[in-house]
Write a structure and sequence with these properties.
The chain is an alpha/beta fold. 43% of the residues lie in helices and 16% in strands.
Protein backbone atom coordinates (compact mmCIF):
# COMPACT_ATOMS: atom_id res chain seq x y z
CA UNK A 1 0.00 0.00 0.00
CA UNK A 2 2.82 2.41 0.81
CA UNK A 3 4.40 1.74 -2.57
CA UNK A 4 1.12 2.43 -4.36
CA UNK A 5 0.50 5.63 -2.43
CA UNK A 6 4.03 6.83 -3.16
CA UNK A 7 3.61 6.10 -6.87
CA UNK A 8 0.14 7.68 -6.97
CA UNK A 9 1.45 10.94 -5.53
CA UNK A 10 4.47 11.03 -7.80
CA UNK A 11 2.47 10.27 -10.95
CA UNK A 12 -0.19 12.84 -10.09
CA UNK A 13 2.47 15.54 -9.74
CA UNK A 14 3.83 14.52 -13.15
CA UNK A 15 0.42 15.19 -14.73
CA UNK A 16 -0.59 11.58 -15.37
CA UNK A 17 -4.37 11.29 -15.84
CA UNK A 18 -4.94 8.03 -13.93
CA UNK A 19 -2.11 7.84 -11.39
CA UNK A 20 -3.46 5.14 -9.06
CA UNK A 21 -4.59 2.87 -11.89
CA UNK A 22 -1.21 3.20 -13.57
CA UNK A 23 0.53 2.51 -10.25
CA UNK A 24 -1.50 -0.67 -9.78
CA UNK A 25 -0.74 -1.88 -13.30
CA UNK A 26 2.98 -1.20 -12.91
CA UNK A 27 3.17 -2.88 -9.51
CA UNK A 28 1.29 -5.98 -10.65
CA UNK A 29 3.63 -6.14 -13.65
CA UNK A 30 6.63 -5.83 -11.35
CA UNK A 31 5.40 -8.65 -9.11
CA UNK A 32 4.15 -10.71 -12.08
CA UNK A 33 0.72 -11.13 -10.51
CA UNK A 34 -2.83 -10.15 -11.56
CA UNK A 35 -3.87 -6.67 -10.50
CA UNK A 36 -6.63 -8.15 -8.33
CA UNK A 37 -3.96 -9.99 -6.31
CA UNK A 38 -2.72 -6.68 -4.93
CA UNK A 39 -5.96 -5.98 -3.06
CA UNK A 40 -5.54 -9.11 -0.93
CA UNK A 41 -1.88 -8.40 -0.15
CA UNK A 42 -1.73 -4.68 0.71
CA UNK A 43 0.33 -5.33 3.84
CA UNK A 44 2.93 -7.54 2.16
CA UNK A 45 6.46 -6.09 2.12
CA UNK A 46 8.19 -5.44 -1.19
CA UNK A 47 11.47 -7.20 -1.80
CA UNK A 48 14.39 -4.95 -2.63
CA UNK A 49 14.67 -5.96 -6.30
CA UNK A 50 10.92 -5.50 -6.75
CA UNK A 51 11.06 -2.05 -5.20
CA UNK A 52 13.92 -1.01 -7.46
CA UNK A 53 12.14 -2.25 -10.59
CA UNK A 54 8.89 -0.58 -9.54
CA UNK A 55 10.62 2.76 -8.88
CA UNK A 56 12.28 2.61 -12.29
CA UNK A 57 8.94 1.99 -14.01
CA UNK A 58 7.26 4.81 -12.11
CA UNK A 59 10.09 7.19 -13.06
CA UNK A 60 9.65 6.27 -16.72
CA UNK A 61 5.90 6.79 -16.44
CA UNK A 62 6.54 10.21 -14.89
CA UNK A 63 8.36 11.01 -18.13
CA UNK A 64 5.03 10.11 -19.81
CA UNK A 65 6.18 6.87 -21.40
CA UNK A 66 2.97 4.91 -22.11
CA UNK A 67 2.01 2.17 -19.68
CA UNK A 68 1.54 -0.24 -22.58
CA UNK A 69 5.20 0.17 -23.56
CA UNK A 70 6.33 -0.20 -19.96
CA UNK A 71 4.51 -3.51 -19.46
CA UNK A 72 4.82 -4.41 -23.18
CA UNK A 73 1.18 -5.46 -23.41
CA UNK A 74 -2.15 -3.97 -24.47
CA UNK A 75 -5.62 -5.48 -24.54
CA UNK A 76 -7.61 -5.40 -27.78
CA UNK A 77 -10.92 -7.12 -28.52
CA UNK A 78 -10.56 -9.25 -25.40
CA UNK A 79 -7.02 -10.41 -26.13
CA UNK A 80 -3.63 -9.31 -24.85
CA UNK A 81 -1.09 -8.19 -27.47
CA UNK A 82 2.64 -7.68 -27.22
CA UNK A 83 3.62 -4.10 -28.07
CA UNK A 84 6.81 -2.07 -28.17
CA UNK A 85 8.02 1.28 -29.47
CA UNK A 86 8.02 -0.01 -33.07
CA UNK A 87 4.21 -0.27 -33.19
CA UNK A 88 1.21 1.88 -32.45
CA UNK A 89 -0.65 0.96 -29.26
CA UNK A 90 -4.04 -0.61 -30.17
CA UNK A 91 -7.00 1.66 -29.38
CA UNK A 92 -10.54 0.67 -28.29
CA UNK A 93 -11.91 2.80 -31.16
CA UNK A 94 -10.38 0.38 -33.65
CA UNK A 95 -12.63 -2.42 -32.36
CA UNK A 96 -15.37 -0.77 -34.44
CA UNK A 97 -13.38 -1.75 -37.53
CA UNK A 98 -13.41 -5.40 -36.42
CA UNK A 99 -17.18 -5.30 -35.84
CA UNK A 100 -17.69 -3.79 -39.30
CA UNK A 101 -15.65 -6.49 -41.02
CA UNK A 102 -17.56 -9.24 -39.21
CA UNK A 103 -20.86 -7.67 -40.23
CA UNK A 104 -19.86 -7.44 -43.90
CA UNK A 105 -18.66 -11.05 -43.90
CA UNK A 106 -22.16 -12.27 -43.07
CA UNK A 107 -22.93 -11.68 -46.75
CA UNK A 108 -20.05 -13.60 -48.31
CA UNK A 109 -18.92 -17.10 -49.22
CA UNK A 110 -16.17 -18.03 -46.73
CA UNK A 111 -14.65 -20.61 -49.09
CA UNK A 112 -13.87 -17.90 -51.65
CA UNK A 113 -13.02 -15.00 -49.32
CA UNK A 114 -9.65 -13.71 -48.17
CA UNK A 115 -8.86 -10.85 -45.80
CA UNK A 116 -5.99 -8.39 -45.76
CA UNK A 117 -4.83 -6.09 -42.97
CA UNK A 118 -2.82 -3.29 -44.55
CA UNK A 119 -0.56 -1.43 -42.12
CA UNK A 120 -0.78 -4.28 -39.63
CA UNK A 121 1.60 -2.82 -37.00
CA UNK A 122 1.27 -4.99 -33.88
CA UNK A 123 -0.93 -7.40 -35.81
CA UNK A 124 -3.88 -6.75 -33.49
CA UNK A 125 -6.34 -6.43 -36.39
CA UNK A 126 -4.96 -9.37 -38.40
CA UNK A 127 -4.82 -11.71 -35.40
CA UNK A 128 -8.28 -10.69 -34.21
CA UNK A 129 -9.80 -11.18 -37.67
CA UNK A 130 -8.11 -14.56 -38.03
CA UNK A 131 -9.55 -15.66 -34.69
CA UNK A 132 -13.02 -14.22 -35.17
CA UNK A 133 -13.59 -15.22 -38.81
CA UNK A 134 -11.38 -18.33 -39.25
CA UNK A 135 -10.49 -16.97 -42.71
CA UNK A 136 -7.01 -16.60 -44.24
CA UNK A 137 -5.43 -13.17 -43.69
CA UNK A 138 -2.63 -11.37 -45.49
CA UNK A 139 -0.98 -8.93 -43.08
CA UNK A 140 1.06 -6.18 -44.75
CA UNK A 141 3.39 -3.55 -43.34
CA UNK A 142 6.18 -1.50 -44.84
CA UNK A 143 8.17 -1.64 -41.59
CA UNK A 144 10.15 -4.83 -40.85
CA UNK A 145 10.36 -4.33 -37.03
CA UNK A 146 6.58 -3.89 -36.89
CA UNK A 147 6.08 -7.12 -38.84
CA UNK A 148 8.27 -8.92 -36.32
CA UNK A 149 5.94 -7.83 -33.52
CA UNK A 150 2.88 -8.89 -35.54
CA UNK A 151 4.38 -12.33 -36.21
CA UNK A 152 5.09 -12.75 -32.51
CA UNK A 153 1.47 -11.95 -31.65
CA UNK A 154 0.18 -14.36 -34.27
CA UNK A 155 2.30 -17.12 -32.73
CA UNK A 156 1.17 -16.28 -29.20
CA UNK A 157 -2.48 -16.50 -30.23
CA UNK A 158 -2.08 -19.62 -32.33
CA UNK A 159 -3.01 -18.18 -35.74
CA UNK A 160 0.44 -17.92 -37.33
CA UNK A 161 -0.41 -20.57 -39.93
CA UNK A 162 -3.56 -18.65 -40.87
CA UNK A 163 -1.77 -15.36 -41.55
CA UNK A 164 0.64 -14.62 -44.39
CA UNK A 165 2.93 -11.73 -43.45
CA UNK A 166 4.23 -9.57 -46.27
CA UNK A 167 6.50 -6.53 -46.22
CA UNK A 168 5.55 -3.93 -48.79
CA UNK A 169 3.87 -0.66 -49.65
CA UNK A 170 0.10 -0.85 -49.19
CA UNK A 171 -1.52 -2.97 -51.94
CA UNK A 172 1.67 -3.99 -53.73
CA UNK A 173 2.01 -7.44 -52.06
CA UNK A 174 -1.64 -8.18 -52.92
CA UNK A 175 -1.07 -7.22 -56.53
CA UNK A 176 1.88 -9.60 -56.71
CA UNK A 177 -0.23 -12.39 -55.22
CA UNK A 178 -3.15 -12.03 -57.61
CA UNK A 179 -0.88 -11.58 -60.62
CA UNK A 180 0.72 -14.87 -59.65
CA UNK A 181 -2.69 -16.53 -59.38
CA UNK A 182 -3.64 -15.20 -62.80
CA UNK A 183 -0.45 -16.53 -64.36
CA UNK A 184 -0.94 -19.93 -62.75
CA UNK A 185 -4.52 -20.20 -63.94
CA UNK A 186 -3.71 -18.65 -67.33
CA UNK A 187 -7.01 -16.78 -67.40
CA UNK A 188 -7.96 -13.25 -68.41
CA UNK A 189 -10.82 -12.65 -65.99
CA UNK A 190 -11.10 -12.81 -62.23
CA UNK A 191 -14.26 -14.95 -62.26
CA UNK A 192 -12.39 -18.21 -61.68
CA UNK A 193 -10.00 -17.00 -59.01
CA UNK A 194 -10.00 -19.23 -55.93
CA UNK A 195 -10.75 -16.03 -54.02
CA UNK A 196 -13.73 -14.13 -55.40
CA UNK A 197 -13.97 -11.68 -52.50
CA UNK A 198 -11.08 -9.66 -51.08
CA UNK A 199 -11.82 -7.67 -47.95
CA UNK A 200 -9.20 -5.07 -47.02
CA UNK A 201 -9.05 -3.64 -43.50
CA UNK A 202 -6.74 -0.66 -43.06
CA UNK A 203 -5.94 1.49 -40.07
CA UNK A 204 -3.35 3.66 -41.77
CA UNK A 205 -1.76 6.85 -40.39
CA UNK A 206 -4.37 9.62 -40.62
CA UNK A 207 -3.19 12.57 -38.54
CA UNK A 208 -2.11 15.85 -40.18
CA UNK A 209 1.53 16.69 -39.52
CA UNK A 210 0.48 19.90 -37.77
CA UNK A 211 -1.45 17.97 -35.12
CA UNK A 212 1.43 15.81 -33.95
CA UNK A 213 2.99 18.53 -31.80
CA UNK A 214 -0.36 19.12 -30.07
CA UNK A 215 -0.79 15.51 -29.00
CA UNK A 216 -0.29 14.32 -25.44
CA UNK A 217 3.35 13.49 -24.61
CA UNK A 218 2.64 9.73 -24.50
CA UNK A 219 1.77 9.79 -28.20
CA UNK A 220 3.93 12.63 -29.50
CA UNK A 221 7.14 11.50 -27.84
CA UNK A 222 6.90 7.72 -27.73
CA UNK A 223 4.61 6.27 -30.40
CA UNK A 224 6.11 5.80 -33.89
CA UNK A 225 5.51 8.86 -36.05
CA UNK A 226 5.51 6.55 -39.07
CA UNK A 227 2.22 5.10 -37.78
CA UNK A 228 0.61 8.45 -36.97
CA UNK A 229 1.24 11.26 -39.46
CA UNK A 230 0.09 11.39 -43.09
CA UNK A 231 0.82 14.70 -44.77
CA UNK A 232 -0.80 18.11 -44.37
CA UNK A 233 -4.39 16.84 -44.24
CA UNK A 234 -3.78 13.39 -42.80
CA UNK A 235 -4.96 11.62 -45.94
CA UNK A 236 -1.77 10.96 -47.90
CA UNK A 237 -1.75 7.24 -47.09
CA UNK A 238 -5.41 6.75 -47.95
CA UNK A 239 -4.99 8.73 -51.16
CA UNK A 240 -2.19 6.37 -52.18
CA UNK A 241 -4.18 3.30 -51.08
CA UNK A 242 -7.18 4.08 -53.28
CA UNK A 243 -4.93 5.18 -56.14
CA UNK A 244 -3.18 1.80 -56.06
CA UNK A 245 -6.54 0.00 -55.88
CA UNK A 246 -7.82 1.90 -58.93
CA UNK A 247 -4.66 1.18 -60.92
CA UNK A 248 -4.83 -2.54 -60.14
CA UNK A 249 -8.58 -3.06 -59.90
CA UNK A 250 -8.75 -5.54 -62.80
CA UNK A 251 -6.12 -7.73 -61.17
CA UNK A 252 -7.96 -8.01 -57.85
CA UNK A 253 -11.01 -10.23 -57.16
CA UNK A 254 -14.43 -9.43 -58.54
CA UNK A 255 -15.75 -8.28 -55.16
CA UNK A 256 -13.55 -5.85 -53.27
CA UNK A 257 -14.55 -4.45 -49.88
CA UNK A 258 -12.46 -1.79 -48.15
CA UNK A 259 -12.89 -0.86 -44.48
CA UNK A 260 -10.74 1.95 -43.10
CA UNK A 261 -10.40 3.87 -39.84
CA UNK A 262 -10.44 7.69 -39.98
CA UNK A 263 -10.40 10.75 -37.79
CA UNK A 264 -13.98 11.91 -37.13
CA UNK A 265 -13.30 15.22 -38.88
CA UNK A 266 -12.28 13.47 -42.11
CA UNK A 267 -15.61 11.96 -43.14
CA UNK A 268 -16.43 14.41 -45.94
CA UNK A 269 -12.83 14.50 -47.17
CA UNK A 270 -12.48 10.72 -47.30
CA UNK A 271 -15.74 10.34 -49.22
CA UNK A 272 -14.49 12.88 -51.77
CA UNK A 273 -11.16 11.05 -51.96
CA UNK A 274 -12.88 7.71 -52.62
CA UNK A 275 -15.15 9.20 -55.29
CA UNK A 276 -12.09 10.65 -57.04
CA UNK A 277 -10.95 7.11 -57.90
CA UNK A 278 -14.29 5.29 -57.77
CA UNK A 279 -17.08 7.73 -58.79
CA UNK A 280 -19.91 5.21 -58.37
CA UNK A 281 -18.84 4.00 -54.93
CA UNK A 282 -21.18 4.43 -51.96
CA UNK A 283 -19.15 4.81 -48.76
CA UNK A 284 -20.86 4.10 -45.45
CA UNK A 285 -19.69 5.49 -42.11
CA UNK A 286 -19.95 3.82 -38.71
CA UNK A 287 -19.51 5.45 -35.32
CA UNK A 288 -17.21 4.23 -32.55
CA UNK A 289 -18.17 3.59 -28.93
CA UNK A 290 -18.00 7.34 -28.23
CA UNK A 291 -20.39 8.19 -31.06
CA UNK A 292 -17.71 9.61 -33.36
CA UNK A 293 -17.46 8.87 -37.08
CA UNK A 294 -14.64 6.33 -37.09
CA UNK A 295 -14.93 3.64 -39.77
CA UNK A 296 -15.73 3.94 -43.46
CA UNK A 297 -16.66 0.89 -45.53
CA UNK A 298 -17.06 0.81 -49.29
CA UNK A 299 -17.47 -1.71 -52.12
CA UNK A 300 -15.34 -0.78 -55.14
Amino acid sequence: MEALQWANNKLRKAGVDSPMLDAEILLSHTLEVPKTWLFAHFTDPLKTHHREKFHLLVDRRCNREPVAYLVQKKSFYGRSFEVNAFVLIPRPETETLIDTVIEILKDTDPEHTILSDIGTGSGAIAVTLAHETKLPVIAIDIDAPALSVAKQNATIHGVHEQIDFQQGNLVEPLVRLFKSIREQKKVKTSSVYPFKHLLIAANLPYLPESRIERLEPEVKTYEPRLALASGTDGLDHYFELFRQLRQNRKILPRRLSVIIEIDPDQRAAIEKLIHHDFPSAKPETRKDLHGHDRVVSVEI
